[in-house]
C-alpha cells in the first residue's frame, strides 16, 4: 500500500504500471498473433490498481499464506494477468515471451497448476466467485484477516453459478470478499445488450445484499477512490468497472470484431506506437 | 362388479427408502458419526451442504460442530466451488448432497475447481444408484460412469456401516478429491461378521468358494453374501470379492480371483454402462485375461418410480434374482 505517498504521485505511478502492463500484453499478443488483447488493454488499469495498490501480496512469495487472494475468474484474460504478475514481480518479464508456447508456465487460459500467482484455474466461466466464497469463509473461519478479491467479466453474469455465489456471500456476511467486474459490454456472440441483458447491474447486486460502487474502469484516480469506498466490512462488496476494449490503442478501441481481436502482423508496432503516443511518460 | 379384496400394494413411501431389511443389524447415520469422530481429532475438517444436511446424515456433524458447518442453500455449483476455496485455505471439506446433483448439476465445478488442482475435497452423494423409488430425477444410476472419467477423483462404493465408518478418515487422509456413495439412515452392518477392514484402493475376498466368484461393490456386496448363503442350499460353493474402491481399482486382487475356472459374476447398484462391470472388463482385457463375466446391474434406461423392494426385484438386484442368475449361468 502507498498511503504515505501523495495522491498525485500514487496515481501517476499506477498509470505508469498500467502502461507497462499494456505493453507486456501487446508483446505477448504478438508472440501468438492473436488473443484476448482487447480485454487486457481494457482491464489493465484495474489490474494495475489491484496488484500495485490494493492487494496485500508478497510478489516473490506467491504462496504466502496471509496474502490477499486475487482470483482471475475469467481465465481468458490470462494474457493480462501474466502482464500484471510480471509488473508485480511474481513473473519475470523475460518469461512473458513463452506465452502460449509448448511447455510454458503461461498457457493461453489461466491455470493455477501452471502459473505462480494464479489462484484458480479459469476458462470455464462463472467459477471464480464460488471459489472466492469458500476462500473467504475458510480465511474468516481461521481468523485470517486476508481479503479475497475475485476478478470477473460481465459475461460471467450470464452464469447462474455467479448468482448462487453472490447469494451465499451475502448470506454469510463475507465482508472480506470483494468482487471486481470488468464491464466491457461485449461477449463472444456480440454486445452484451444483445446476447443477454445484464443491466441494471447496481440494482441487481444491491438486491443480492452487496455493497456496490460503479466506476470508470479506465480512470485510475476514480478506481483508487472506488476501492477505498468499499473497505472490508460486514457485507461483501462489488466494484463494477466500466472499461473500453482496446483502451490505449485507438484503432483497436474502434475495431468492430473486438471480442477475439485478430491483429495483422504489421499492426503490433503500430499499436505500441499508439500506446506511446497516448502515454509519452510511459516507461517503455 | 363384485367386491373383491384389493391386494395390498407396496408404496413408494418416502423418497429415502431404507435398504435395511426387517430385523437386520444396523447403525444409525454412520457417515455423520464417523465425520464427527474424525472432526474431534482434526480441527481442519469442515462440513458443507446444499439444503440436504438432514438427508445425508450431515446433520449429525452440523449439530455437534455448528461453527464448522456451512450451509450454502440449494445451490450445488457454489457448494463445490466454495469447498474448493475452503480447501485452498487449508481446510478439509466434506460436502454432502444427492449424487444426482453432485454428478449432473455440478460436474464442471467438481472437475475444474477441485479435481484439476487435486484438492482434498470429499464429496458425499446420497441416493446413489437405485436407492430411492422417486424416479430418474433422484436416481443416480450413472454416477460412477460420469465420475470415472474425472482424473484424480477417488470413487468409493461402500457396502455397509463398517465400510463407511472406516472409509471416512481414510478419505480425509487421501490428498486428492474423493466421492463416497452414501448409504444413509439406518445402514446395515454386515462386514463385521467377516475378517475385513476397509482399505482405500483395495479389494477384499470376503469368502472363498469353488464354483462361482461374485465380484461386487456397494450394497450389492451385502446381497452377494446373502446369495452365497442361499446358493449353498443348492450345493453351489460361492466366493465373494468386495471392491469398495472403484477408482483407483484393485485389478490385481480382482483378476487373481476372476482368472479361474469358476463362473464369474459382477454385481453393482449402477447402470451396466461405465460402472463395476466395465471396470472389471477393461482391467481383464488390459491384463490379457479372456473370461466370460455375467453382469448383474441396472439396465441402460431411465428407471421406473415405485417402491424400492419392487424395483430391486424388477431390475434383478434382489437376492432371489441373483441366485437365479447364478444358477442359469451354471446350467
TrEMBL record, chain A:
<protein>
    <submittedName>
        <fullName>Transketolase domain protein</fullName>
    </submittedName>
</protein>
<dbReference type="Pfam" id="PF00456">
    <property type="entry name" value="Transketolase_N"/>
</dbReference>
<dbReference type="InterPro" id="IPR005474">
    <property type="entry name" value="Transketolase_N"/>
</dbReference>
<dbReference type="InterPro" id="IPR029061">
    <property type="entry name" value="THDP-binding"/>
</dbReference>
<comment type="similarity">
    <text>Belongs to the transketolase family.</text>
</comment>
<keyword id="KW-0786">Thiamine pyrophosphate</keyword>
<feature type="domain" description="Transketolase N-terminal">
    <location>
        <begin position="17"/>
        <end position="275"/>
    </location>
</feature>
<dbReference type="GO" id="GO:0000287">
    <property type="term" value="F:magnesium ion binding"/>
</dbReference>
UniProtKB/TrEMBL annotation, chain B:
<dbReference type="InterPro" id="IPR051157">
    <property type="entry name" value="PDH/Transketolase"/>
</dbReference>
<dbReference type="Pfam" id="PF02779">
    <property type="entry name" value="Transket_pyr"/>
</dbReference>
<protein>
    <submittedName>
        <fullName>Transketolase central region</fullName>
    </submittedName>
</protein>
<keyword id="KW-0786">Thiamine pyrophosphate</keyword>
<dbReference type="InterPro" id="IPR029061">
    <property type="entry name" value="THDP-binding"/>
</dbReference>
<feature type="domain" description="Transketolase-like pyrimidine-binding">
    <location>
        <begin position="25"/>
        <end position="189"/>
    </location>
</feature>
<dbReference type="GO" id="GO:0000287">
    <property type="term" value="F:magnesium ion binding"/>
</dbReference>
<dbReference type="Pfam" id="PF02780">
    <property type="entry name" value="Transketolase_C"/>
</dbReference>
<comment type="similarity">
    <text>Belongs to the transketolase family.</text>
</comment>
<dbReference type="InterPro" id="IPR005475">
    <property type="entry name" value="Transketolase-like_Pyr-bd"/>
</dbReference>
<dbReference type="InterPro" id="IPR009014">
    <property type="entry name" value="Transketo_C/PFOR_II"/>
</dbReference>
<dbReference type="InterPro" id="IPR033248">
    <property type="entry name" value="Transketolase_C"/>
</dbReference>
Amino acid at each position: 500500500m502507498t498511503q504515505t505517498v501523495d495522491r498525485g504521485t500514487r496515481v501517476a505511478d499506477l498509470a505508469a504500471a498500467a502502461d507497462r502492463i499494456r505493453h507486456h500484453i501487446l508483446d505477448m499478443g504478438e508472440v501468438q498473433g492473436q488473443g484476448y488483447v482487447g480485454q487486457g488493454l481494457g482491464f489493465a488499469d484495474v489490474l494495475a490498481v489491484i496488484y500495485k495498490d490494493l492487494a496485500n501480496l508478497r510478489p516473490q512469495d506467491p504462496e504466502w499464506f496471509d496474502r490477499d487472494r486475487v482470483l482471475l475468474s475469467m481465465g481468458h484474460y490470462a494474457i493480462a494477468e501474466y502482464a500484471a504478475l510480471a509488473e508485480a514481480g511474481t513473473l519475470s518479464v523475460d518469461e512473458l515471451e513463452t506465452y502460449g508456447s509448448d511447455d510454458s508456465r503461461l498457457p493461453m487460459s489461466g491455470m493455477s497448476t501452471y502459473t505462480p500467482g494464479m489462484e484458480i484455474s479459469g476458462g470455464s466461466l462463472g467459477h471464480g466467485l464460488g471459489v472466492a466464497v469458500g476462500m473467504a469463509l475458510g480465511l474468516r473461519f481461521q481468523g485470517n484477516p486476508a481479503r479475497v478479491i475475485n476478478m470477473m467479466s460481465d459475461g460471467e453474469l450470464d452464469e447462474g453459478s455467479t448468482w448462487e455465489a453472490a447469494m451465499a456471500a451475502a448470506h454469510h456476511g463475507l465482508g472480506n470478499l470483494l468482487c471486481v467486474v470488468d464491464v466491457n459490454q461485449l461477449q463472444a456472440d456480440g454486445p452484451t445488450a444483445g446476447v443477454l441483458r445484464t443491466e441494471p447491474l447496481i440494482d441487481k447486486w444491491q438486491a443480492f445484499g452487496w455493497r456496490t460502487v460503479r466506476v470508470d474502469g479506465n480512470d485510475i484516480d476514480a478506481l483508487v477512490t472506488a476501492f477505498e469506498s468499499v473497505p472490508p466490512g460486514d457485507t461483501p462488496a462489488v466494484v463494477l468497472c466500466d472499461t473500453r476494449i482496446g483502451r490505449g490503442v485507438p484503432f483497436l478501441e474502434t475495431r468492430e470484431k473486438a471480442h477475439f481481436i485478430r491483429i495483422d502482423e504489421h499492426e503490433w508496432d503500430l499499436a505500441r506506437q499508439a500506446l506511446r503516443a497516448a502515454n509519452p511518460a510511459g516507461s517503455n | 362388479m363384485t367386491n373383491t379384496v384389493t391386494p395390498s400394494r407396496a408404496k413408494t413411501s418416502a423418497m429415502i427408502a431404507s435398504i435395511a431389511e426387517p430385523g437386520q443389524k444396523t447403525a444409525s447415520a454412520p457417515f455423520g458419526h464417523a465425520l464427527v469422530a474424525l472432526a474431534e481429532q482434526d480441527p481442519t475438517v469442515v462440513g458443507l451442504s446444499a439444503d440436504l444436511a438432514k438427508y445425508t446424515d450431515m446433520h449429525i456433524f452440523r449439530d455437534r460442530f455448528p461453527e464448522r458447518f456451512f450451509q450454502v442453500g440449494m445451490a450445488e455449483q457454489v457448494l463445490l466451488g466454495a469447498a474448493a476455496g475452503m480447501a485452498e485455505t487449508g481446510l478439509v471439506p466434506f460436502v454432502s448432497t444427492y449424487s444426482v446433483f453432485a454428478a449432473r448439476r455440478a460436474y464442471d465445478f467438481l472437475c475444474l475447481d477441485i479435481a484439476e488442482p487435486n484438492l482434498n475435497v470429499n464429496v458425499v452423494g446420497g441416493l446413489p444408484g437405485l436407492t430411492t423409488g422417486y424416479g430418474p430425477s433422484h436416481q443416480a444410476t450413472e454416477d460412477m460412469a460420469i465420475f470415472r472419467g474425472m482424473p484424480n477423483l477417488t470413487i468409493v462404493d461402500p457396502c455397509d456401516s463398517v465400510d463407511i465408518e472406516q472409509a471416512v478418515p481414510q478419505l480425509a487422509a487421501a490428498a486428492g478429491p474423493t466421492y463416497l456413495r452414501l448409504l444413509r439412515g439406518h445402514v446395515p452392518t454386515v462386514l463385521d461378521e467377516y475378517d475385513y477392514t476397509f482399505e482405500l484402493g483395495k479389494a477384499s475376498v470376503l469368502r472363498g468358494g469353488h464354483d462361482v466368484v461374485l465380484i461386487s461393490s456397494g450394497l450389492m456386496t451385502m446381497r452377494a453374501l446373502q446369495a452365497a448363503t442361499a446358493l449353498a442350499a443348492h450345493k453351489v460353493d460361492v466366493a465373494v470379492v468386495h471392491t469398495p474402491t472403484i477408482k483407483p481399482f484393485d485389478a490385481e486382487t480382482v483378476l487373481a480371483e476372476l482368472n479361474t475356472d469358476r463362473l464369474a459374476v459382477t454385481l453393482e447398484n449402477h447402470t451396466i454402462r461405465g460402472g463395476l462391470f466395465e471396470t472389471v472388463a477393461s482391467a481383464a482385457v488390459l491384463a490379457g485375461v479372456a473370461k466370460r463375466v455375467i453382469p448383474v446391474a441396472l439396465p441402460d434406461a431411465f428407471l421406473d418410480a415405485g417402491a424400492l423392494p419392487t424395483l430391486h426385484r424388477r431390475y434383478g438386484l434382489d437376492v432371489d434374482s441373483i441366485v437365479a442368475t447364478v444358477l442359469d449361468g451354471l446350467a
